[in-house]
Amino acid sequence: RYLYEVGVDMNGHLVVLSRGRRNLKIADVNAQRAIEVIRVVDKTEKRNRLCAVLVSANGTVAMCCQENWSSGPTQGDTGPIHIVNLVTKQKTFIIHPEQEYDFTGSSLSPDSEFFALPLKGESDASG
Question: What is the pTM of this model?
Answer without folding.
Answer: 0.79
